[in-house]
Structure formats: structure tokens, C-alpha cells
Amino acid sequence: MNNIIARTINLEKTYSPGEHNEVKALKGVTTQFSSGEFVAIIGPSGSGKSTFMHLLGALDLPTSGDVEIAGKSLTKLKDNDRADLRAKELGFIFQGYNLLSTLTALENVVLAGDYAGLPAKASLERAKELLKEVGLAERFDHTPAELSGGEQQRVAIARSLMNDGRLILADEPTGELDTKNSEAIVELLRDLVKRKQKTIVMVTHNEALTRFCDRVIKVVDGRLA
């Protein structure tokens, strides 16, 4: 059986607890993710998907329960240790690409290497190699404005791989793309999962894309359906 990369244990998240506007976003969510697994998270708006991804990405802490990444309990780590875990074990892909407009594709990816603490030369070489892997060998010197939406997301995927982390969280990575580019991006993610034994957890509103995934988790009203 594959190694468990991440797990959630009776995960609960309540916003404004005890107040009149209290919202229970997650209610006892327990699941796990294995090495080399591509998992889709689906569910209606307001179901708790984004909250789940924030907790899984060590961007927030649960009200109760726990998240374990690479065997480490997030609730037991200090803030700086959680930040270090994010830098070393996690990659993030966003709907809006989140590329710096004044930097080239190569510079955007290299910057992620800097954040991960890679030496400058190693960071540059790795960024070039990753951009080649995602099909952008001829786009090193292009700024985001000179790239299509699909190309910008490929840059973002390369960026998410710079730290060679084991878990990649993709939040609506095809939300701004047409059908053809959406399928191409998800196929690229699936290839990375299998070839590099990454674990990718992808939130998507497009259920047609779940056919590329190994497993689908549906979140409804803060619970796994």
C-alpha cells in the first residue's frame, strides 16, 4: 500500500464560535491521501471545500481535530515550524495563477526556489527543467501578459514543483480556462502524479474533470458525503 502523505482526523472548523453568527464550516472530517494519488474535491458553494483546503495546506488551524502532513501534527507545531513545513512539503496551484506580472515565466518559477531555500544556481537550473517538463521550453522569457491562460497555469504548476514537496493542493486550477485547456491541465497534473509520485488534491466545480482522478471526495454541509 502507498505511503500516507496527509490525513485529517475528526477535523472541525467553526468560525465565530459562541457568537450569533457562528458558522460550522467543517464537521468531523476524517480522510487520508496516499503517495501517487490524484484526488478531486467537489461540492456546492459554501460546503466547506475551501476551508478544508486551507486546513490541509497549513494556512489555518482547526477548531478541533488535527491535520497530519508527512507524519507531523499541524496543531502541535509552532507557527514558524508550520511555515517551514509548507515551504518544504507543500505546493500550491491557484485559479488565478498568482504570477508576478513584472517577472518572466522563468523568474516566477525561480522565485519559488528562492523561497524554498535553494541555492541560486540550482534554483535556476531546476526552474528551466520544470518549465520544459510542462511544455514551456520556448516561453522562459515571456511575462504573464504574453502567455495564454493555459500557459500561465503551466508556469504555476512548474512553480508548485520547485520545492519537490510531496503534496500539491490545486484550488480550482481550471476555473478560468476553456474545456480544451482545462483537460490539458488536468492531464498534466495526472501525469505528474504518476511520474513523480506526487499527491495532488484538487478542488473543482467541473465534475467532468473528475474522470482523470483516482478518487473523488464530495463535501456537503461540512461533511464528507
UniProtKB/TrEMBL annotation:
<feature type="domain" description="ABC transporter">
    <location>
        <begin position="6"/>
        <end position="225"/>
    </location>
</feature>
<dbReference type="GO" id="GO:0098796">
    <property type="term" value="C:membrane protein complex"/>
</dbReference>
<dbReference type="GO" id="GO:0016887">
    <property type="term" value="F:ATP hydrolysis activity"/>
</dbReference>
<dbReference type="InterPro" id="IPR027417">
    <property type="entry name" value="P-loop_NTPase"/>
</dbReference>
<dbReference type="GO" id="GO:0022857">
    <property type="term" value="F:transmembrane transporter activity"/>
</dbReference>
<dbReference type="InterPro" id="IPR017871">
    <property type="entry name" value="ABC_transporter-like_CS"/>
</dbReference>
<dbReference type="InterPro" id="IPR003593">
    <property type="entry name" value="AAA+_ATPase"/>
</dbReference>
<dbReference type="InterPro" id="IPR017911">
    <property type="entry name" value="MacB-like_ATP-bd"/>
</dbReference>
<protein>
    <submittedName>
        <fullName>ABC transporter ATP-binding protein</fullName>
    </submittedName>
</protein>
<dbReference type="Pfam" id="PF00005">
    <property type="entry name" value="ABC_tran"/>
</dbReference>
<keyword id="KW-0067">ATP-binding</keyword>
<keyword id="KW-0813">Transport</keyword>
<keyword id="KW-0547">Nucleotide-binding</keyword>
<dbReference type="GO" id="GO:0005886">
    <property type="term" value="C:plasma membrane"/>
</dbReference>
<dbReference type="GO" id="GO:0005524">
    <property type="term" value="F:ATP binding"/>
</dbReference>
<dbReference type="InterPro" id="IPR015854">
    <property type="entry name" value="ABC_transpr_LolD-like"/>
</dbReference>
<dbReference type="InterPro" id="IPR003439">
    <property type="entry name" value="ABC_transporter-like_ATP-bd"/>
</dbReference>
